[in-house]
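User: My collaborator sent over this chain with a note saying "see what the structure looks like." That's all I know about it. Can you take a look?
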Amino acid sequence: MKSGVATAVVLAAGMLLTVAARAQQPATTAPAPNPLDVVPEKLPFNTPYGSPISLQKGQEAVHAAAAEADKRGWPLNIAVVDSGGNLVTFARMDGAQLASIAIAEHKARAAVKFRRPTRLFEDAVQKGITYITTLDDIVTSRGGIPLIEDGKLIGAIGCSGGTGSQDEVVCTAGAATINK
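Assistant: Without extra context I'll predict from the sequence alone. Here is the result:
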């Protein structure tokens, strides 16, 4: 019986200390503003769509990307789509993983449809902005880069088969043939 009374006294004292501690805390301030509520003056990622990339330019981008991947020993899949998201050219390097064929195309399509690198979607998810995953055709992995010529979006390049950072390095090399 004594141990039951002692336990009750300890619990009551703990509850009183908790209430006293909460009473001494300053009133909480208003929550920080949500960055998603900021209204920008200009529409972000508003690069106008241009004429579709030509096969020749698409192949030049793929060749540059493949040369970078080959130099590093990374067998990747590389896709170039036009400004409408249609496949223009594709390369599957020897030994590139099969699942990455569709992923490379998906990265390129997401980059052209949303007019931004797919890395931005990955960054958003890493920051906890998960609503981005509810949008159609999103891929939250880097390795999709828009191709811009004379200020107009003419297509995009997507790479897959390595880590996201490897895919991005190779895509950047391919995009450099257009994005000067």
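A starting point for your reply to your collaborator: The CA atoms of residues 34 and 129 lie 11 Å apart.
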